[in-house]
Every structure is written in C-alpha cells, then in structure tokens.
Design goal:
The structure holds two protein chains of two kinds. Chain A is of the alpha/beta class. Chain A has six helices and 13 strands. Chain A is globular, with a radius of gyration of 22 Å. The chains are: A alpha/beta, B alpha+beta.
C-alpha cells in the first residue's frame, strides 16, 4: 500500500503567541507537528503495519520543518519530502498549498492520502478536500475509524457528535479527527532509525511551478489575538435588582441586546 | 559512537517526556508508599530502548553517549519520577564493554540491551570498608575452573531486581600485593544460577530505593566470567565511576529543575494576603538563586559528558558535576519546601518525596566530602587529607 501523509508544522497554541506587524513572531513560539496530522501519521503506521507498503510524509515549508519530518520518521514513517518554498513563496494561502501538492502528486501512485482534519493555526480545513478534488479522488473528512480491505475502505466519520459510516473505493483522501487513534511518540530505536531514512527536498522548480502559478487567491487584511479574557463580574443584591443590572450591562456595556 | 544533533537531542527529550506522562506523580507516590519497585515504568523504558542507549549498535543498543544518556535520566527525574530504579541497567554494563572479552560482550550485551537480562546490581561497598574500597574483604578464590566467593556486600541497590551482578572481590590478600589497589578482581555473577548460595536482605530506607545487603556463601563463578585482568579490578571499576557520576549529576539536575518548575508554579498560583506568594522576595529569591546554581551545574555536567564521549579523562569534571548538581538541587529542594510551606510536608503534593530522594545524591554514590578531598588532592595538588 502506498500511503502519503500531509503534514504541517505549526506553532503550539498552548504556548504564548506574540504577533508583530501582522505576523506571528516565530522567535518565541514553539513549533510542533499539527496535532491532527499526528493522528494521520499514526493511522498510516498502523495501516502499513497491517497491510505492508510504504509511508511518505510530505510537508511544505522551510528548512525548519525538517525537525517535524524527522519526528514523523522517528515515529515510524518510511520516507519524507520537504517542499521547500522558503525562497520562492512570500505569501501563501490554501490555493497555494493545494496547487503545490497537486503538482507533487501528479506523477505519484497512491492508495491512501491522510491529512489532519484541520491545522490548529489557521484551521481552514480546506487542504484535504481541495486536494482530493484536484486529484479527482474521493475524500472523507473527520474520520474516527478506518478499515481497508482490498480496494475498499470502510470509514466512520464524526458528524457533529454522530457517527456516519461510509464505504469508499481507494485511492481515497481522508482527514483525521480526534478519537481516531492514540498517536505514538518516538522510541529510541525509532529515533536512531530515522537518522538513516531519506528526507528529500524539492523546490517549486522541481515541480515545474513558478511563483506566479501559486500566487494566493486571498489577501490577509489583519492578524490579531482574541481579546484577553477579563475577570468575571458577580452581581449582588436582590434578584430583581440583579436582573435589571444584568440587562443594563448587556445593553449598554456589552451591547449585545 | 554516534553523536546527536541538538534537534535529535530535543527529540530524545520530548519522547522521554511523553513516556513519563504515562507515569504521573501519583504513580511514583504509590510505589514510594508501598516501597514497590516501579516495574511497569522500567518495562516501558526497556521496551522503548531507553536503557540500552549506551550499548553499541552492534550489540543491539543505540550506540549513543553520556550526553544522550544524561538527557534521558534528567527528563525522568524532572517529570517527578525516579530514574534510580533503572539507571544502573544503562551503565553497569560499561565494565564489560570496556574491559570484557569479545565472548563476554557477545554473551551478555545483546540480552542486556533487549532487557532479557538485567545487569543493574553492583556489589562493591562492604560494611567495614565503606568508601575505602581497597579494604574490602569479600574473597574470590580460584579452584579449578571456578572462583569461590565468600563475603558480604552492603548498599547493593536493585539486587532483588537484577539477574546479574557486577562483583568486586579480593583475589589476592591485601598483605601480598605490591600496590594496595592491586589484588581486586571484577566478575559477572549470575545471581539466578547461584541463588541458593546468595542471601539478599533488603534495607528499609528513607526513600524507595530497593537497596540491600548481600551475603555470599561459596558462590561459584566460572573463570570465563572474570572481567578483564585478575587483580586489576579496582582500576577497571574506577573507569566506570566517571560514567556513574555524570549520570547521577543528570538525575540530580532533573530533580533540581523539578523543584524549580514546581516552586515557580506554586508561587505564582498560591495567593496569601491577596497576592501571589511569589511576589515576596523571601520566596522568590531562593528559587531564582537555586535555578542559577542548577544551570551552572548543568554546564559542568555537559562538559564532563562531552569529554567522556570524546574519550578524554574527565575524572575531575565528572566529580565536580556530581558535587555541584547535588548541592544546587538541595538548595532548590529547600526553596521548594519553603515555597510550599505546610503543603510541602503533605505527601499528596509530592514535594516531601522528591525532597527525600534529592538528599541521596549528596552522599551517594560517593559522599560530597570525598569529592571535595579529591579535588583538593588530585586537582589542586594539596596534601592528602585522609
């Protein structure tokens, strides 16, 4: 089975994020594998261990993303590809990413492409479905269970708390949701083996793409942090007075009614 | 030996942290309370290859060095755990690796790497000799193709949880050797095979450390289990001590950072007189001071580990690292006790457990007083003080 995993290096949203000039300040941020992509990597490893084959983890980014690729290799992936756009792409959006991936997959053979349901940074959730559309293969999002039998895949997906059961033919692209599995962390032999596994680096040129081909279709106007949570207010006094005060506050201060 | 990049070292650290998350402080509190061996934790460490970090790849290990081994142990102790239950499986085999025959390496190292055999007991200290190792009285007498061992060891940790023991015994009486460091020999003792001739008596201690007294009565060791050269065991043991010092200083640093992490968190959260107690310099300063000391000790540990991995003589650095780390951590332990106040004494908060554990490294595996006299005599050229 030829398995591909789309992985994104993201900043850790559990750490403090600083925004400077409309961009996330990378200096102080901690970077991790997008947690939903970890489900995808784990599922790929389980599929490979059961059905045989090879896992290639693909990411788009700069040299820094090598660290996350090495981690994926140490978890158990077989190969990795860094599509390095550091020097070529200044601004990007989901269109850019899908366009690059589409070019990458053009000459590839694949039975299964796994991705995270969303990335925790921008959380658009678009890459998986849009890439499947470009490659003209079926796509199932937010999956919580996956069984492959020959060229069929039986999938359970999370639909707002309910479960939808789907049967689909491969090749297929799936996006992984929490609950699918428990991602492993690298063991020491895994880390040692990863040193010898291939990490291929490609640039736009290698994919026959120009900067113009991947120019984003959207423009970011502003980037800002959510307002800081303020201390709550406890109203006191008779219930009637409290209700009056609450309505007044909602109307005049919060301006929601 | 392979060297890790800083990224690989980060990955080692984060993987060990992930493993340790499965063994939260409640786990360690329970094993401490029940004086139980943390078998599940040690098994997990073994299964994921962490204890065979120092064993060369050709014998089934990772083939890494002190830098990586230290990072692993440091992270375990920083998580609130106690690496002491398994650290010796990492380094006791060093004597076989450095001084053993190829046959011994083939016979033992792969099984130690896989965890099939545990070699994590080292019989060296005796009740009458203490730190004066050349005065040990346990004897090994050659009869035919076997050595017959009689005597007694004390403070032999994990003897009940080890298949093999590295044993130092006298093969030539002290009054018949030219140098007093001669006449001692090092053996691999198969404790399973000889269990009828060995009595292990656990010593109840202030911490959960599985330490014991071991008695040998006509214990038989085949000649092929003599490590290195007969009569040169003391020297062979010394070369392994540096590894132990570096790893112990790493555990101690882990403890120290645990205390700092915990103190900072508690001092920020706990409010008394309507403000976090960390706002008080009496609380804040000891935490900051001990943190600086730990960071400095870490530099010495790093230096010693790098020298060890380069094959340089790091006796002074390894000893100084152990001293600096354990003293700095003891400062941090006391800062944590002060920060937590009465809650520091409540077992539920874990501080008192770690406090007890951290105190060990001031006296073991060698007392800091002897480190100081070593530095005075051997590093600075002052007169021998004992």
């Amino acid at each position: 089975m030829n398995i591909y995993v789309l992985m994104k290096r993201t900043f850790d949203t559990e750490e403090k994020i600083v925004i400077e000039d409309g961009r996330i300040d990378e200096e102080g941020a901690e970077f991790i594998i997008n947690p939903y992509d970890e489900y995808a990597i784990e599922e790929a490893i389980q599929l490979r261990d059961e059905h045989g084959g090879e896992i290639t983890v693909v990411t788009i980014g700069g040299e820094d993303a090598e660290k996350q690729l090495r981690t994926a290799l140490a978890m158990g992936a077989d190969k990795s590809v860094l599509i390095n756009v550091e020097d070529d792409v200044e601004e990007s959006d989901q269109f850019t990413t899908v366009k690059i991936l589409e070019a990458f997959f053009e000459d590839k053979e694949y039975d299964m492409i796994l991705a995270g349901n969303v990335a925790i940074d921008q959380a658009s959730g678009q890459i998986g479905p849009r890439l499947a559309e470009s490659l003209d293969i079926p796509c199932v999002t937010t999956i919580t269970n996956l069984e492959v039998d020959g060229d069929k895949a039986k999938i359970e997906r999370d639909v707002e708390g309910d479960v939808e059961k789907i049967e689909v033919s491969t090749p297929v692209l799936v996006t992984c949701q929490q609950g699918l599995n428990e991602p492993r962390y690298p063991s020491l032999p895994g880390i040692m083996k990863a040193k010898k596994k291939p990490l291929e680096e490609l640039e736009l040129d290698d994919l026959d793409l120009d900067e113009d081909d991947v120019e984003p279709k959207t423009k970011t106007i502003d980037v800002f942090l959510p307002p800081e949570k303020e201390a709550g207010k406890i109203l006191e006094g008779e219930i009637d007075d409290q209700v009056n005060e609450l309505v007044g506050l909602l109307r005049n201060e919060a301006k929601v009614i | 030996m392979a060297k890790s990049t800083s990224e690989e070292l980060d990955l080692i650290r984060s993987s060990v942290r992930s493993l340790c998350e499965k063994f939260p402080e409640s786990y360690w509190r329970e094993t401490d309370e029940n004086k139980a061996y943390p078998e599940e934790f040690i098994q997990a460490l073994t299964d994921e290859g962490w204890l065979s970090v120092l064993i060369p790849e050709e014998y089934g290990g990772a083939g890494l060095g002190m830098v990586e081994a230290g990072a692993i142990l440091e992270e375990i102790n920083r998580s609130g755990g106690n690496a002491g239950a398994g650290h010796a499986q990492m380094y006791t085999m060093g004597a076989i690796l450095r001084h053993g025959s190829e046959n011994q390496k083939q016979r033992y190292l792969p099984k130690i790497a896989s965890g099939e055999l545990r070699l994590q007991a080292f019989g060296i200290t005796e009740p009458t000799a203490g730190s004066d190792t050349t005065s040990i009285e346990t004897t090994a007498e050659l009869k035919g193709d076997r050595y017959i061992v009689n005597g007694q060891k004390i403070w032999t940790s994990r003897a009940e949880y080890s298949d093999l023991m590295l044993l130092l015994a006298r093969t030539t009486p002290k009054d018949q050797v030219k140098k007093k460091t001669d006449g001692l020999s090092l053996f691999i003792l198969d404790m399973q095979d000889q269990k009828d001739n060995i009595t292990i008596r656990p010593i109840d201690t202030m911490i959960n450390h599985a330490t014991t007294e071991v008695f040998f009565e006509n214990v038989e060791i085949p000649v092929e289990n003599l490590v290195g050269v007969e009569g040169k065991g003391f020297k062979q043991v010394l070369s392994g001590m540096n590894a132990e010092r570096i790893l112990i200083s790493s555990e101690s640093i882990g403890d120290g950072l645990y205390f700092v992490d915990k103190s900072v968190q508690y001092a920020n959260e706990r409010e008394v007189f309507n403000r976090p107690i960390g706002q008080n310099q009496g609380v804040q300063f000891p935490i900051a001071e001990s943190y600086m000391d730990i960071e400095a000790a870490k530099l010495m540990r790093n230096k010693a580990a790098e020298m060890f991995d380069e094959g340089e003589n790091c006796g002074a650095e390894a000893n100084m690292a152990k001293y600096l780390a354990s003293e700095a951590t003891w400062k941090a332990a006391n800062a944590a006790m002060t920060t937590y106040g009465g809650y520091g004494f409540a077992t539920e908060y874990n501080i008192e457990r770690k406090f007890r554990e951290a105190r060990l490294f001031i006296v073991a595996p060698i007392t800091n007083n002897l480190v100081v006299s070593y530095v005075g005599q051997h590093v600075l050229g002052l007169p021998r003080s004992f």
